[in-house]
Write a structure and sequence with these properties.
Helix 3 crosses helix 4, helix 3 packs across helix 13 and helix 12 packs across helix 13. The two termini are 17 Å apart. The protein has a domain of 212 residues. The protein is an all-alpha fold. It is globular. The longest helix is centred in the last third of the chain and has 31 residues.
Amino acid sequence: MRKRLLRLLAWAVTAGLLILLFRRIPFAQVMAAARGAAPWTLPAALLCAGAIYLGDSFAIWKTFGWFLAPLSFADVLLVRGATYLLAAINYNVGQGAIVYFVHRVARVPVIRGVATILFIMGINVLALLFLATAGLAAAPAVPHAVLVLVVIAYAGLAVYVAVVAVRPRWLAARPVFQVLLNAGAGGHLRALLVRLPHIAALMVLQTSMLWAFGVRVPVVQAMAALPVVFLVAVLPISVQGLGTTQATMIFFFSRYAGGDHAAQQAAVLTASLVAQAVPLLFQAVLGVACLRSRVGRALSASADEARAS
């Protein structure tokens, strides 16, 4: 019941933000921005979507090999591609399917698989936090709420570092925390480094889409502000960052677009929506293709197990 309420709340936040944005920005301006897109917009977006997929799969492949079980890169590509579709339908089922698949293939305990997924999710947030911190110094003035978010994140990180250093017995005895506690500083650093190509591909996608719609943001400013955008987007308050991403992008980048204020905001809004829509379409098609493979069929069976558990 609680999960359903949180999911409904996320949809309400997403819908509310999008309604607010489209009330402030005339739809005619959005359509004008769409018509003015560069001819290379779609190929560039698809190329970046492919790079994001490869970067994400590479990070999972290396992290699984270090902390869970060695898998072939080809299998990880198929698993990750298939789970894009499963996670779009139900995020928990998508993550659970990965765990049960590795359990079936490598005979590793399910709880260790859960622990590794949690570790990967934590590393993703950690990477964004560090990049966002570096970007705050060079980015234009940011909303006070973002600064508060970063401070809270560092407070949580301080607690996490203390727990990893002390290794309290009541946590060390729980298998779900063993990967986090045993990774050490070296393990966390390795997992961070292999995640960087994925984040770099995300940044290239967003920057190239801004340029495609006439938002001539300097590369340095994009590198500084985008990690903050991504950090806001991963907050579990909207559906896949929709709405929160667009609002934050408009705040940071509308001043780099041409035309009046409404046209500037419309250009960024359109670029941001395309930067989310094209990868989602790519992932949906990829997911259908991967689910038809041998690995995909095994993953589907694992998804059924995840639902039943």
